[in-house]
Design a protein that fits this description.
The complex is a heterodimer of chains A (142) and B (443). Chain A is an alpha+beta fold. Chain A has helices at residues 18-26, 52-61, 82-88, 120-129, 137-141; strands at 2-11, 31-38, 42-49, 66-77, 97-107, 110-117, 134-135. In chain B, helix 7 (193-205) links the parallel strand 5 (188-191) and strand 6 (217-220). The chains are: A alpha+beta (142), B alpha/beta (443).
C-alpha cells in the first residue's frame, strides 16, 4: 500500500535539478511523478521513481541529501466532485494531509494522487473503509 | 606535584623525558638555546640583524630569558616580503625539506628544515602523541593533507617515530577513509576537526557505527575548535579528542598538544619559547593574562623565528598541570586577533557562529559566513549546509529549522543575520579546513 517517495534538498538556483535528473537517467531510473515544493532560497523535489533503491543509492553516492518518505497513491474518480468525495472520507477523522500532488497518468476514468498524511495507517484504514482504491508500487510502477 | 612515576607511564615515551624537566633546568636550557638562536639569526638573517642594529642591540645583550622582550618581533608579512628564501639561516645544501602554506592571497609562505629540524619536529610530535596516550601498537590514520602543507608529513613522521602503524590516507575520499578505518582497525585519527565531523556524518550515512570501531583517540588541529565541538565529537564516537597546536612558521603541527587532562595545550618549551603580549601595544603580559601568543624557535636551524606574532589569542596557564609535565600550557585557541569581524560595529568571531549552530539539535553542519555591504550597511549571511540529519521533506520543518538557527545566532552574536540553507558539500574546503569567512565588503 505504502509507496516510497524520494525527496531531495536543492537550492533554488538555475540548473540545480538537472544534475540529479541526469544521474537518474544514467542509471535508467524513470521518474514517474515529481513535485517541487519551493521557497525563495531552496526547494524540495519529491519524486516517485521506478526504482527507489537504485535512485537513492546513486544520489547519495553523489553526496545529495536524500530522504525516503512513505506516501499513498490514491485513485480518484476523474469527474467533478471526485476529489471532494475522497477527501470527504477523511473529514472529522483528525487525519491531516501534509501535502499532495497528482500522478500524471490516468487509469481509465481514474486519476491518481499522491498523498502524504500525518498518520498513514489511519488514512489507509479510513480510505479503504470508504471503498477508495489505493495503489501499491507494483500497480503504480508497472 | 606528581612525579613521572606516580602519573603512570602509560602516556610516556623515551622522547617525553624533557616534558618533566625541573623548571630551573628547563629555563637554563631555554636561555642557552635562545642565546645561540639569536646569534645564528644575527649572523645569517639580514632582516633580523638590521632590526637589531636599529635598536642598538647585539646578541651579547641577551643575558636572561626576560631579555627576550628586547628583541624585535617577526610577523607573517616578513615571510612574504622575503619570499622565497630570505629568512633562511642555512645554505640550501643543508636544507632537506621545504613546505609552503596554502596562503589565501598572493605568494605562499615558505618554510625550511635541516635534517636536525626534521628530527626535532618528529620528536615533538612523538611527545604530543605519547601525551595523548598513544604508543606502539596503535594504528594511526593521518588524514591531514600530505604535500606542501605541514600537517600530513609532520604527523606522519611523528606517528612513525612513536612506533605506531601509520595509515597515510592524506585528505579527501571520505568513503575510503571510513572503509580503511574499519578494515585496518584504526585506533587513532589525525585530521582537522571539521574533516572528522564530516567523516562522522558520512559514516552515519553509510551505516557505519563509529562507536563499534576500535577508534579510541583523535588528534585534531590546524584550525581553532571549541569545547562544544569536542563534546559533540566524543558523544558520537568512542574517542578521546585532543587539540594539537602548531603553525608552519614555527615548525608545523607539534608546537603544543593537550595531555589527557585536557586542560590546555602543553607547549614544547625546550624548543618553542612562548610569550603573551598585548596585541595592540606588543607589551609582554604575565602568565594568566589573555593576549597574543608570540613564539620563538629555540633550536630551529634552517629558519629561526624570533618572537613570531602568531595572531592567536590565548593565555599561558599559570599553574602546573596535574599530569606532572613541567611544560607550561596555553589555553585552547578560541580566536585569532585577525579573525575578529566587525559587523555594524559589533565584534563577531567565527567560533561564536559554531557555538550557535551546536545549540540546535542534530549535527554540526558545515557553515560559511558571507559578509557584504548593502547601501553602506554591513550584512552578514550564514550559509549552513543541510545534512541528512537535518533534512525533512516538509518545507515547514525546514523553515522552522532556519528560524531556530537564526534565533540562536541573533542571541549569541547580538546582531541580526540572514541564514541560508544550502546543499550539502556546496561550501568549498581546502586541506580539509573549511573556509569560514568570505568578506565581500569593500570599504
Amino acid at each position: 500500500m505504502k509507496i516510497q517517495q524520494i525527496s531531495l534538498f536543492v537550492e533554488n538556483k538555475p540548473g540545480h535539478i538537472s544534475a540529479p535528473a541526469r544521474l537518474l537517467a544514467q542509471e535508467g531510473v524513470d521518474i514517474r511523478a515529481l513535485y517541487l515544493a519551493d521557497t525563495q532560497q531552496y526547494g524540495i523535489v519529491r519524486m516517485v521513481v521506478s526504482d527507489w533503491r537504485k535512485a537513492a543509492a546513486v544520489l547519495e553516492a553523489h553526496e545529495f541529501v536524500v530522504k525516503l518518505t512513505e506516501v499513498l497513491a490514491v485513485e480518484v474518480p476523474d469527474h467533478p466532485g471526485g476529489l471532494a468525495d475522497v477527501l470527504g472520507a477523511l473529514d472529522a477523522t483528525g487525519i491531516n494531509i501534509e501535502y499532495m500532488y497528482a500522478f500524471p497518468y490516468l487509469r481509465g476514468a481514474q486519476a491518481v494522487l499522491i498523498f502524504r498524511f500525518n498518520d498513514l495507517d489511519a488514512a489507509i484504514a479510513r480510505l479503504q473503509a470508504a471503498g477508495i482504491n489505493l495503489l501499491g508500487s507494483d500497480e503504480l510502477l508497472k | 606535584m606528581n612525579s613521572v612515576l606516580e602519573t603512570g607511564i602509560t602516556d610516556c615515551h623515551p622522547a617525553s623525558v624533557p616534558d618533566y624537566m625541573p623548571v630551573s633546568a628547563l629555563q637554563d636550557l631555554q636561555l642557552k638555546r635562545l642565546q645561540s638562536v639569536v646569534k645564528l639569526a644575527w649572523d645569517k638573517v639580514e632582516l633580523f640583524r638590521s632590526r637589531m642594529v636599529e635598536r642598538g642591540l647585539t646578541p651579547q645583550r641577551i643575558r636572561s630569558l626576560e631579555d627576550i622582550a628586547l628583541l624585535p618581533f617577526t610577523v607573517k608579512s616578513d615571510l612574504r616580503d622575503t619570499y622565497p628564501f630570505g629568512l633562511f639561516a642555512r645554505p640550501m645544501k643543508d636544507i632537506v625539506r621545504l613546505h609552503a602554506s596554502s596562503g589565501t592571497t598572493g605568494k605562499p609562505i615558505v618554510v625550511a628544515y635541516t635534517k636536525e629540524d626534521v628530527d626535532v619536529w618528529t620528536s615533538v610530535l612523538v611527545r604530543c602523541f605519547a601525551g595523548c596516550g598513544l604508543h606502539r601498537g596503535d594504528v594511526m590514520q593521518i588524514a591531514y593533507g600530505y604535500g606542501l602543507f605541514t600537517g600530513g608529513l609532520g604527523a606522519h613522521y611523528g606517528a612513525e617515530g612513536l612506533g605506531a602503524t601509520v595509515v597515510p590516507t592524506s585528505g579527501g575520499q571520505a568513503d575510503r577513509q571510513i572503509m580503511l578505518m574499519k578494515d585496518f582497525g584504526v585506533t587513532a585519527m589525525c585530521c582537522t576537526p571539521t574533516y572528522f565531523l564530516h567523516l562522522i556524518d558520512r559514516a552515519a550515512e553509510l551505516g557505519v557505527d563509529m562507536k563499534q570501531l576500535p577508534l579510541r583517540a583523535g588528534v585534531f588541529g590546524a584550525e581553532p575548535w571549541t569545547e562544544s565541538m569536542r563534546k559533540h565529537i566524543e558523544e558520537r564516537t568512542n574517542i578521546e579528542a585532543f587539540d594539537i597546536y602548531g603553525l608552519s612558521e614555527i615548525i608545523g603541527p607539534g608546537v603544543g598538544c593537550e595531555c589527557r587532562q585536557h586542560r590546555g595545550m602543553h607547549i614544547f618549551e625546550d624548543h618553542f619559547y612562548p610569550e603573551i603580549v598585548d596585541p595592540e601595544t606588543g607589551a609582554p603580559l604575565p602568565d594568566g593574562c589573555e593576549g597574543e601568543l608570540v613564539l620563538t624557535t629555540l633550536s630551529k636551524q634552517a629558519m629561526p623565528m624570533i618572537r613570531y606574532r602568531t595572531r592567536d589569542i590565548t593565555t599561558i596557564l599559570p599553574d602546573q598541570c596535574e599530569c606532572g609535565r613541567t611544560l607550561r600550557r596555553i589555553a585552547r585557541i578560541g580566536r585569532r586577533s585577525d579573525d575578529m569581524l566587525i559587523i555594524r560595529g559589533v565584534n563577531v568571531f567565527p567560533s561564536q557562529v559554531e557555538t550557535a549552530l551546536l545549540q540546535i539539535e542534530g549535527t554540526l553542519p558545515h557553515y560559511q559566513i558571507l559578509l557584504t555591504r548593502d547601501s553602506g550597511l554591513d550584512q552578514m549571511e550564514v550559509k549552513v549546509e543541510v545534512t541528512p540529519q537535518m533534512f525533512t521533506d516538509k518545507i515547514c520543518a525546514l523553515q522552522e529549522l532556519q528560524t531556530k538557527i537564526q534565533a540562536s545566532l541573533d542571541r549569541i552574536l547580538g546582531i541580526r543575520v540572514r541564514v541560508a540553507l544550502v546543499e550539502a558539500h556546496s561550501i568549498e574546503r581546502s586541506e580539509g579546513k573549511a573556509k569560514r569567512v568570505i568578506d565581500r565588503r569593500t570599504s
